[in-house]
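Continuing the series of single-chain predictions for the mutant panel. This is the parent chain; the variants come on the following pages.
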Amino acid sequence: MDCEQYLFGCAYYDEYMPVSRIDEDFRMMKEANMNVIRIGESTWSTWEQREGEFDFTSLIRMLEGARKYGLNVIIGTPTYAFPSWLSDKCPDVLTTTSSGRALYGHRQLTDITNSTYREYAERVIRKMLEVCGSYNDVIIGYQLDNETRSAGASGPAIQKMFAQQMKERFNGDLDAFNLEFGLDYWSNKVPSWDAFPDVRGTINGSLDAEYRAFLRGVVTEFFSWLKSIIDEYRTPSQFITHNFDFSWIGHSYGMQSEVDQKAAAVYTDIPGVDIYHPSGEALTGLEIAMGGAIGRSLKKSGYLVLETQAQGRPSWTPLPGQLTLQALSHLSSGAGSVMYWHWHSAHNAYETYWKGILSHNLRENDVYRELKSFGELMKEHKDSISYLKKRCDVAILLDNRSLTGIDEFPLNGEEAFKGNPEENYNHMMMRWFEACYQMNIEADFVYVDDDLSNYRLVIVPALYSASEATIQKLREYASGGGHLIITPKCFFSDEYLKVYHDDQPHGFTDLIGATYDEFTSRTVKGFKGILDLTGEAAGFIEYYRPLSSTGLKVLAIYDHPYLNSYAAVMRKGTVTTVGCLLDAHDTSVVLTDCLNESGIDIPSASFPVIVKKGINKLGENIAFVFNYSMEPSEYVMTCDARDLLEPSISLTSGDKITLKPWGYRIFRC
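Parent structure:
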């Protein structure tokens, strides 16, 4: 199968259209040099409006049109939204959460472990695949479900599965299970495996977090099940993908808490991502870079952008030139496709004002014309700038269990249960990623089971849940000369969120050269020391006490009459420890110091000029230079280069170029 075919296109929903116009739409796509459509992911009630009555007219119409116009097709299983007759027949297919059973109507409200749901889902998938067998010449891949969730399922049947999993993991030793999860507290001990209390009422953060980890595993198993069905029908040339999404604060932001994406990606040939972000004056490219770094982290290879915005929300309407800038930003992160959600703007229902490429009048517009121009550019240069390989010196460690752990136990400790993960783990992690991004330090994301040896600096944000094996791995990395940045709340608890009962940070005090046993959520207004920190220690502080002066360099202390004996930032050997939350400026100051210590060159250019580099299929070094600004920006070349789009233009190191507002240049270096 060809997992490195450049793809440019959009999602297409014939079933949403107010009029049938496949010929017109597909003709317009071809004129814009688009080569792929995504279809099918929400069409169950169209294909099976009544139980057992299948009508694939719409599917066939789209596949015939794709064949006629030479478009490739990616088909999603229609499993993330089901017809109402199924919930009427078996209400248990609707997820039961702490709020009770879901009401029919929304998407992703399914208990994906439910046997009745799976029976009917498998039937419609197989019927779909039988139809698709006649169109293998245009179908290049299949998408597993859509932005899959467990929907917080916690009905009796799935909780019984969880209890059985715990029984197997602890080899039936109920006492060991109760001890590990601290269930003596408030008389929460489980009396027997057959009398497992309803987890929806638990006050035990460890148990709740473990149930959420179990639900992530449910999603992974669901992917395995879907893939096993498709594998019976697909040809060797057809790939499997999934559109992974991210945490959400009105746009894509940080690690998705409900899916173990790395584990789930095992069941794809090439992972996909859905990246949405602010636009207009608020466009920075940060979310594109973040989503791309996670996308390429999942299988250490290229990835597909299966969804991004054309117009999107009304506040995201792009300014002239931004669509091209955004598309090239995706490709410069290592993507092999740019695909929009979606082709037209819906004329009714939930997402009426999440606008597609075409507006509601379905005519050519400025968005279409700019994408048509981008399609023309890519027709010639697709092999030079898609599926770029990255060589990053810096990595940021991601961990789902730590995200959940800080959700369960927020930093302020005021609500010692069920915090907001987007105000904690992801914001702490993204603060470091954004510092790298703005300094033009391209960073990978890595996971606790990844090889770290190729990185010169690894940033470890808020690794609250850390197994002994993970701690040992990081110790070996640092002892071998690798540079680490340790942030607050690292190594505090084990994989079950049981707090380690020795000196904090557990297993690292000797490498750090300090320890703490007190912390606070107060704000301290300022620092003193070697580093030029100008902000506050806001939101969380660990009271680090040096164990000895041998080898320890205190870089900053708190400017506070009672806290000035505690280290705010310190370094011993190759380990730099930050004991508090820093603002954006101070994070960049610490990062700069660590990059210098690591021997990593810091580019002279910084945001709004963003530089991304990679190696293309031809083995060429490619550099993108972007201007994320309403104003012109200057950039000084750091290598001899030839302009990719205008090969007659060559530049030498030291030459100065001017970038237009929202402009870009691409170079062969």
